[in-house]
């Protein structure tokens, strides 16, 4: 890699024109989103139109858990989806699943089948296109080649992918005008243990729904309430990401190998003027965004919002809420499509939580709520939340989950990459607390203290006591607007935002399955406690009366006060206050991962039926091992870059400075400026060499830890990260001194602005 390559690449990146695609037309106009949406999805509507009514009816019964799919039904569905897919150019199908790698996996099989027949003693082979019910229902990838945390040995290779019947099948466009049929699946071992992210998510959603229905049944008033048959977790996943020029990306080994820059100093202007957020979207980025949305609409992904984020070259895509299982599938599809479309536009998408030091990192804000089959959001406070006891019961159950298992939720968002983001000024800290806002806090306080509600704001601006106010903008041509129930708190890891909780601490590159699974499980457990308290209050009555519900609400208000915090989560005062309240402040991944083994957490996850002890132990080992490997890869990458790129560049600069100083001295022209730079440069280079030697020693020290993955993770965190930071500090100092024409790596200035 040379400085000439860097310069030519920068120049090339500035001349790239946006890629244009032909947006589909209808009647001489671009097609509406509603006309494109879901056209590559084998939806229930498609299934109903292509299957005999008895077969489709049997399938719906299976979806409700009333019976399992028989061979006749499976074969009929397989044939119908094969015909539908082949009509759209499909040649292959794949079971699409989510191993514990924060990504997806797939193995393609063609529809090709050979059928033999014998005529006059000779075998005749006929070629057919087919998909059987058994092929649709399950497949067999190599289970030993995916993370299993010791549950599967190399010689125990068999594992199964099984069609997740609640997730619609879909088509992805392949090469040369062909397509591939994707079958969303779970991934289990030969003995039935969950090896993936989706199996445990489905379990947690089911147990949460069951326990939510239990609470609803206990408070069901047949004269005034509508009966609820189903409850599902609703999830909206905001995806933040960076986009940089792909040619410049190829010149950064750290970005290619680790996803983040291990060297690099901030330019004079980055995000401090706060002008990038919601700013004008660059042309190349807008072209890529539009094409990505087009691809996602065809896949039934409900993209809603796109905008510039806070940091330079940072952006966000947000969808409409869906059932959690579908939302997770769609988020993983979104990441995949963003990756592929960015390449078409000569861009590179970065999902790492902190690809650039000194500017905001990226998160994946998970907007979580509970919804019934008749469209009721159980976390909707309505205009008078103080009278909406159903809402208060589910609100307090969620707070109780945080009170009891906040450390478990912290474990769910821990990773080597997210550690660089959490606690900085764009992400919440490691203390899990909930923000409710002044109005809801007042509601809970008033109920606990048995007093009337206070009012907020000037009397003339109050349209209701609690539930929002009207804002008069004092401009005749502007309408008055309704102010929301509560403000937003961007420092809170778990903030109530109107009718849902926003779990802001999830990392941008991780699958949301695991953190949402842990959240679902904790809330399911707390709903069991709420149900038990309601049963005690109800006694022999038909249902828990308003008085019974209020007694339980008061009980849970008192025991969840510690986890509520309305202030600045970044402040030192909150750290001290949280310690007084007994809330854990978990600042690193190693400490977070150990909470998976905490008896209180392990017992809960086992009791609600989401993880077996073996599966939880496996998860602990996988997370610890991945952390250690991630940090080690970063350390070795940094070492290579410094030794092979940064030091040689600095040596060349020193050599030229020394030769220049010598020549100037010979002609008595004065060489003090060159000597001054040399004297400034040399001590830093010496310190860098010492820091490199220390890093080499620490990397070698981790080689000696082979039988204790927890110790390896702790050692990597405690020694490799500080050693890497020392190396980086000296390398970044050199970047500010060494002549620009010598520096081999694209700098932040070029990475940020060349799109």
TrEMBL record:
GO MF annotations in UniProt: glutamine synthetase activity
Gene3D superfamilies: 1.20.120.1560, Glutamine synthetase/guanido kinase, catalytic domain
Domain annotation GS beta-grasp: ranges: 91-192
Top-rank taxon: Eukaryota
Alphabetized Pfam families for the sequence: Gln-synt_C, Gln-synt_C-ter, GSIII_N
Example GO biological process: glutamine biosynthetic process
Domain GS catalytic, residue spans: 197-646
UniProt xrefs under InterPro entries: Gln-synt_C, Gln_synt_N, Gln_synth/guanido_kin_cat_dom, Gln_synth_cat_dom, Gln_synth_gly_rich_site, GS_Type-3, GSIII_N
Record's protein name: Glutamine synthetase
The organism of origin for this protein: Umbelopsis ramanniana AG
């Amino acid at each position: 890699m040379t400085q000439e390559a860097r310069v030519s690449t920068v120049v090339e990146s500035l001349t790239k024109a946006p890629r244009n695609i032909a947006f589909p037309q209808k009647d001489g106009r671009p097609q509406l989103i509603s006309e494109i949406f879901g056209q590559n999805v084998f939806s229930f509507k498609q299934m109903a139109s292509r299957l005999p009514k008895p077969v489709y009816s049997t399938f719906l019964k299976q979806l409700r858990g009333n019976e399992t799919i028989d061979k006749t039904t499976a074969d009929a569905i397989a044939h119908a989806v094969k015909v539908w897919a082949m009509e759209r150019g499909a040649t292959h199908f794949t079971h699409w699943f989510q191993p514990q790698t924060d990504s997806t996996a797939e193995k393609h099989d063609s529809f090709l089948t050979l059928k033999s027949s014998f005529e006059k003693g000779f075998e005749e082979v006929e070629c057919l296109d087919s998909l059987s019910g058994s092929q649709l229902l399950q497949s067999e990838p190599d289970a030993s080649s995916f993370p299993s945390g010791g549950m599967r040995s190399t010689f125990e290779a068999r594992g199964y992918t099984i069609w997740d019947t609640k997730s619609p099948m879909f088509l992805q466009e392949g090469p040369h005008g062909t397509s591939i049929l994707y079958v969303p699946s779970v991934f289990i071992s030969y003995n039935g243990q969950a090896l993936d992210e989706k199996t445990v998510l489905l379990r947690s959603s089911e147990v949460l729904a069951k326990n939510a229905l239990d609470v609803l049944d206990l408070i069901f008033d047949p004269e005034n309430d509508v009966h609820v048959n189903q409850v599902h977790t609703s999830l909206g996943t905001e995806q933040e990401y960076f986009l940089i020029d792909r040619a410049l990306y190829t010149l950064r080994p750290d970005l290619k190998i680790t996803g983040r820059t291990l060297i690099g100093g901030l330019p004079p202007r980055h995000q401090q003027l706060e002008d990038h957020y919601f700013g004008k979207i660059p042309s190349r980025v807008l072209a890529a965004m539009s094409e990505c949305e087009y691809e996602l609409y065809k896949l039934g992904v409900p993209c809603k919002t796109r905008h510039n984020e806070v940091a330079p070259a940072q952006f966000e895509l947000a969808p409409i809420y869906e059932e959690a299982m579908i939302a997770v599938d769609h988020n993983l599809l979104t990441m995949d499509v963003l990756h592929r479309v960015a390449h078409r536009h000569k861009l590179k998408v970065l999902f790492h939580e902190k690809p650039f030091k000194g500017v905001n990192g990226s998160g994946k804000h998970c907007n979580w709520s509970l919804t019934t089959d008749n469209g009721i959001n159980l976390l909707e406070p309505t205009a008078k939340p103080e009278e909406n006891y159903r809402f208060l019961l589910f609100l307090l159950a969620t707070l109780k989950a945080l009170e009891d298992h906040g450390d478990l939720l912290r474990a769910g968002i821990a990773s080597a990459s997210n550690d660089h983001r959490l606690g900085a000024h764009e992400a919440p800290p490691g203390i899990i607390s909930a923000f409710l806002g002044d109005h809801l806090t007042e509601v809970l306080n008033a109920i606990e203290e048995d007093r009337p509600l206070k009012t907020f704001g000037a009397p003339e601006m109050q349209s209701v006591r609690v539930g929002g106010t009207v804002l008069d903008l004092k401009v005749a041509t502007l309408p008055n607007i309704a102010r929301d129930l509560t403000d937003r708190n961007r420092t809170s890891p778990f903030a109530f935002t109107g009718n849902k909780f926003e779990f802001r601490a999830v990392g941008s590159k991780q699958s949301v399955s695991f953190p949402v699974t842990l959240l679902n499980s904790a809330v399911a457990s707390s709903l069991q406690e709420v149900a038990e308290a309601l049963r005690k209050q109800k006694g022999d009555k038909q249902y828990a009366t308003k008085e019974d519900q209020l007694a339980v609400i008061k009980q849970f208000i008192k025991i969840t006060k510690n986890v509520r915090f309305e202030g600045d989560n970044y402040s030192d005062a909150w750290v001290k206050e949280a310690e007084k309240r007994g809330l854990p402040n978990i600042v690193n991944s190693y400490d977070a991962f150990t909470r998976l083994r905490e008896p209180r957490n392990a017992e809960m996850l086992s009791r609600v039926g989401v993880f077996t002890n073996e599966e939880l132990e496996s998860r602990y080992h996988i997370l610890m091992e991945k952390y250690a490997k991630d940090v080690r890869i970063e350390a070795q990458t940094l070492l290579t870059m410094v030794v092979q790129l940064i030091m040689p560049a600095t040596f060349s600069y020193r050599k030229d400075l020394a030769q220049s100083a010598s020549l100037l001295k010979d002609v008595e022209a004065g060489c003090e400026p060159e000597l001054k730079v040399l004297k400034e440069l040399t001590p830093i280079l010496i310190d860098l060499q010492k820091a490199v030697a220390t890093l080499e020693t620490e990397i070698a020290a981790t080689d000696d830890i082979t039988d204790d993955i927890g110790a390896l993770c702790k050692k990597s965190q405690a020694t490799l990260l500080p050693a890497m930071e020392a190396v980086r500090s000296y390398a970044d100092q050199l970047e500010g001194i060494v002549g620009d024409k010598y520096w081999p790596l694209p700098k932040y200035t070029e990475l940020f602005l060349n799109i």
